[in-house]
Amino acid sequence: MLFKTRKDMQIFYTAAGTKLDQEYGRIKANIIFGAKKRNAQIFSVLSQNRQEGKSTLISYLGIAFSKEEKRVLLIDGNFENPKLHKIFGIENDQGFSNLLADGGGLQETVLKTEFPGLSILPAGTISKQLETSIQSSSMDVLLQSAKRKYDFIFIDTGALQSMITSKLLAAKSDSSIIVVRRMRTNSHDLQELKTSLESYDIHVTGALFNTKKLAWLKR
Ligand SMILES: Nc1ncnc2c1ncn2[C@@H]1O[C@H](COP(=O)(O)OP(=O)(O)OP(=O)(O)O)[C@@H](O)[C@H]1O
Ligand SMILES: [Mg+2]
């Protein structure tokens, strides 16, 4: 469930040994394992449909990694319905899309959160020609710069079924994490998802089954 208040975030940050803390500990361990195996730092978080829990997962993950004193950057690549700035209570007047369109330094645009080591690059304000920008050299420069400054980079995306930008972002990432939501994702969705992964040559580290009790699914 998404944090209802900022206090909920702080509670999750300080919590030790709760079920949620343990579950995210497991998810984190699987990601670290997958990252080492593949020498991966950049993960896109994907789902076939809207509202399957991508922004929720990415926000908890960011805080969970912050507990371990890792340097983590969350990039909001959901240009249709950006949410990370709302969740973390930060501005969105400059962000990822502005950097892609106009260039500029990552460090000047990234915003720090109250959690040590956890920074956010909000989606920003540009909505045109993003498909081209994502495939341009400014995207590669941006990701290379992020890799030098952070241990892990997670990219939030919009539903794969409606957004080509999400597939392009995933193709630019080192690997991806798939979110599947109970009672929402059906077998047709999974078939479509598989087709996208194959045609864009997207690597998958693992999948998260989003229920009240989150579970990490092996590939
Ligand atoms: N495990 C869960 N239990 C209860 N509610 C959840 C759970 N996961 C997500 N939600 C709720 O479902 C809604 C959608 O979640 P979220 O915004 O994370 O999805 P999303 O995939 O990022 O959506 P979008 O595709 O619009 O970006 C939110 O209101 C969130 O609080
Ligand atoms: Mg979202």
TrEMBL record:
GO cellular component: plasma membrane
SUPFAM superfamilies named in the record: P-loop containing nucleoside triphosphate hydrolases
Molecular functions per Gene Ontology: ATP binding; non-membrane spanning protein tyrosine kinase activity
Native source organism of the sequence: Alkalicoccus luteus
Keywords: ATP-binding, Kinase, Nucleotide-binding, Transferase
Protein name as catalogued: CpsD/CapB family tyrosine-protein kinase
Top-rank taxon: Bacteria
Xref: InterPro entries: Bact_polysacc_biosynth/exp, Cellulose_synthase_operon_BcsQ, P-loop_NTPase, Wzc-like_C
